[in-house]
From TrEMBL:
The keyword Disulfide bond applies. Residues 1-23 form the signal peptide. Its main location: secreted. InterPro entries: CRF-bd, CRF-BP_C, CRF-BP_N, Sperma_CUB_dom_sf. This is Corticotropin-releasing factor-binding protein. It comes from Zoarces viviparus. One of its GO terms (molecular function) is corticotropin-releasing hormone binding.
Amino acid sequence: MSVALRTQMFLFLISLSSRTGLSRYIEDNEAADGLYSLLSLDQKRESEDFIFRRPLRCLDMLATDGYFTFAASQPQLACAAFIIAGPSEVISLELSDVNIDCSAGDFIKMFDGWVLKGEKFPSRQDHQLPLHQRYTDYCSSAAPAATSRSSQNVAMIFFRIHSPNSGFTLAVRKLHNPFPCNIMSQSPEGSFTMVMPHQRRNCSFSIIYPVEIRLTDLSLGQAKSNEVSPKRKVWAGCSGSGDYVELLGGNGVDTSMMFPMADLCFSLTGLAQMKIGCDNSVVRLVSSGNYINRVSFQYRLLEQRELPKTRENALDNFCSVE
Ligand SMILES: *[C@@H]1O[C@H](CO)[C@@H](O)[C@H](O)[C@H]1NC(C)=O
């Protein structure tokens, strides 16, 4: 992902989160204000509009619940909105007031995940649904649908609209997800704990910034206590073991195309840390289903001076590790 796009997304996220803060402040104030009960029904309806509402842009990033209305002022042939929620949330999308002409080539498609530069997150390997089931097509002749629910904290909508005055409204709602697996971080710093309880499933936590990651706790294969891992595993790498954590780095969002930077297949109580100077840094937990696995980590944005100087001239695929 280009630095420009990432910066743009970051700015969006910042501006959106400060706006949520504002609308929350307004709502709290209202709730505390006894005068609210004296408002006429019309006035109350109007104030319910503080449920966030705004126009949707042809290229957009949404990080709040609300209603987003797209109205074409000219033919818009390649539009997309990226939607992101908190790590322990999934996203419900619902289309309403749809006024488009599917027979003229207009479309609106929702996607369970993100597609960036042709790469998908979560990767095909790590998502529980086959790829075709991750698309919801409003114009599909076989299975038209106007609602979609994501499997993780990111989702997306693609649309093409030819005639001016056509459009639609997208309702975004975030729902709690008690078992998050596959997460895109909203910010370049934070901490998280991924847990995989007895499921044969792989989960990735993706941070689309160059970061330093510190593993603060790792517990793998808590089975019988007398089952000591043989030492030679260290040298054989972790792929022979069904339960491990890998740190990946790369410049796209598909984790199956990223470079392994480190493997850890032992429970750990000390610290392991690594600087990953890539556009995307990932902690991936591979689980056999035999155990309860847990990994905790913290991450922070690498400063400009911590990035390798050769980076700008380097091949597109290259990124550094320390
Ligand atoms: C998890 O990942 C490992 C290594 O990438 C792979 O061998 C295994 O089949 C994956 N498991 C699932 C359920 O996809």
